[in-house]
Protein: Transcriptional regulator, MarR family
Amino acid sequence: MSDCELPPESLGFLMHDATRLLRRRFEVRAAELGLTSAQWRLLVHLMRGGPQPQARLAELLEIEPISLSRLADRMQEGGWVERQPDPHDRRIRILHATDKTRAVIGQAKEIAETIYADALAGLDPAIVEQLMAALRQIISNLSHTTETDHDR
Structure:
């Protein structure tokens, strides 16, 4: 293979395509709830970790604070979240899940679990566990900053 010839598949492209297809399927199925995949991800973090500052949620979702602010604006308008000032620093806004979120989160979780089951259909449970372990290892490997990351 020459230097300019690219392989037909790579880890990055396969992972990106799988993620894109999971996201697309979720968006179609969760449309009845009025949820996008980005909103679902934010709600999962709120339900797991409780009320959190917008800046922390932006870090967790790996998006810019302004993008999180716009997402939170839409979600507040839709009744999914409430913003409250931090009792110790009024410049900080804390996002809270609403009663609407608590009422619908189970349905959204069922949608996600059905999609995951569809994605993993036909795979032996042992292979699924190996896949999950491999993905956790990849995440761990890439979560640590290396010297070469600083050079770029």
